[in-house]
Amino acid sequence: MNCRGVSTYKSKNAKKVKKITFNLNRNGGSIADAFRLLNDKIYYAHLKNLLKMPNSHMVVTRLEEGHVDQMEVMAGLKAHLRSGMLAIEYPCSGDGIIAAHRDMEYIRFMKKR
């Protein structure tokens, strides 16, 4: 499993904390492997999705339209996300409020499953 970055820092209570970030869009890898490896160490999730284009470029899109299986991601987050904190990224042109609304509706739909 490829990880984007691993860093160690001291928390407010002076404990050493290891921060591991995965980027399935860039590095690939299995969603199941990421959750198996991180297990109960997930405190924050940042969601976005990309469409793989025929020319090997990737285009940012809403959560339900990209190549990452967000249903599998949400199932893993239900089991392993300790804080409940999620962020959605949609750095595209167009109306960001409408895009955020659609992504939130999609997340609500996935949470019910």
What does it look like?
The chain is 35% helix and 30% strand. The chain contains four helices and six strands, in the order ββααβββαβα. A hairpin with a 5-residue loop joins strand 4 and strand 5.
Q: Please, what is the average pLDDT?
A: 77
Tertiary shape: globular
Helix-strand makeup class: alpha+beta
Tally the beta strands. 6
Strand numbers in spatial order across the main sheet: 1-2
Q: Which segments are poorly predicted (pLDDT under 50) over 5 or more consecutive residues?
A: 1-11
Instruction: From the alpha carbons, calculate the radius of gyration and give it in angstroms.
Output: 15 Å
Query: What percentage of the residues does DSSP assign to strands (E)?
Result: 25-35%
Q: Ends: how far apart? A: 27 Å
Counting DSSP H or I runs of 4 or more residues, the number of helices is: 4
